[in-house]
Design goal:
The chain is an alpha/beta fold and 278 residues long. Helix content is 38%, strand content 20%. Helix 4 packs parallel to helix 5 and helix 8 runs parallel beside helix 12.
Length: 278
């Protein structure tokens, strides 16, 4: 190429991707996560249908009469409702028309505690329940659901507040167990434990300063309590337990992952129950 051609060569056009993309396509809503539902009507119908809903977000400043039915249904179902800035819902809705309403939904419906107890009675078995005291990691909940299914536990109890809910991560980690192990949300943990004790259940909590786990009787009506990842059981929950059990530790660390500890104890209960039924 000589100097004349180089000097007068037409410069190449720069390609600007956004100019080649129709505005409608650029502004199209993104796909919502599996555990997010938006819009007043959609959330109201989900509440009426009994779908598991973990929490509802409402935008500040919405007219009360527009959401009156939704709030009443949420209160009736015991669903947490939180008022937030509209900008937060805008961001979470990813371009979808939300009308100031967004809900986090569960992959399966929650059940009532009575349903879990009825399940045990229908099988002619003493209740075997697992109560998770403010567990925070969805991977731990999913792993515990998987073990609960394997050992034949009748259900899992989680607090309505300050606890990881059923969500897409829990469902994936459980490898399908979330479809088979009923989960009930409860209000006050201590009151629930006292009620279960009055109905004949033996409450066993897991903690580092307990008696050896294999010395405890885990064969009758049982509520196994597993605490949160960092703090373990709360003080009041621990005081409400009939017995505290621990796992032997001979290594350098002083505690096990919550899902591992819970799984070991569930299998200890299963071993005892199987030996009794021989």
């Amino acid at each position: 190429m000589d100097r004349f051609e180089k000097k007068h060569r037409t410069p190449a056009k720069k390609h600007l991707p956004h100019r080649d993309t129709p505005r409608e396509k650029r502004d199209a809503p993104q796909e919502l996560p599996d555990d997010v539902l938006v819009g007043r009507n959609a959330v109201v119908e989900a509440l009426k249908a009994g779908r598991g809903i973990n929490k509802i977000l409402l935008a500040h400043g919405d007219r009360p009469h527009d959401i009156q039915e939704l709030v009443a249904l949420a209160k009736e179902r015991g669903v947490v409702v939180q008022s937030v800035e509209r900008s937060k819902i805008d961001a979470l809705a990813a371009g979808h028309r939300h009308q100031g309403v967004l809900a986090y939904v569960a992959p399966v419906p929650y059940v009532e505690l009575e349903d879990i107890l009825a399940r045990a009675e229908a099988k002619g078995e003493p209740p075997f329940l697992v109560l998770l005291d403010e567990l925070e990691d969805p991977h731990n909940l999913g792993a515990l659901l998987r073990t609960a299914d394997a050992v034949g536990a009748h259900g899992i109890l989680i607090p309505r507040r300050r606890s990881v809910p059923l969500n897409a991560t829990v469902a994936k980690t459980s490898a399908g167990a979330v479809e088979h192990v009923p989960v009930a949300r409860i209000g006050n943990v201590v009151q629930t434990l006292k009620s279960l004790k009055e109905r004949g259940c033996w409450v066993v909590g897991a903690d580092m300063d307990g008696t050896p786990y294999d010395a405890a009787d885990l064969t009758g009506p049982l509520v196994l309590v597993v605490g949160s990842e960092g703090k373990g059981m709360s003080r009041l929950t621990k005081e409400t337990c009939d017995i505290i059990v621990s796992l032997p530790m001979v290594g350098k660390i002083n505690s096990l992952n919550a899902s591992v500890a819970g799984s070991v104890l569930m299998y200890a209960a299963l071993r005892q129950r199987l030996s009794v039924n021989k």
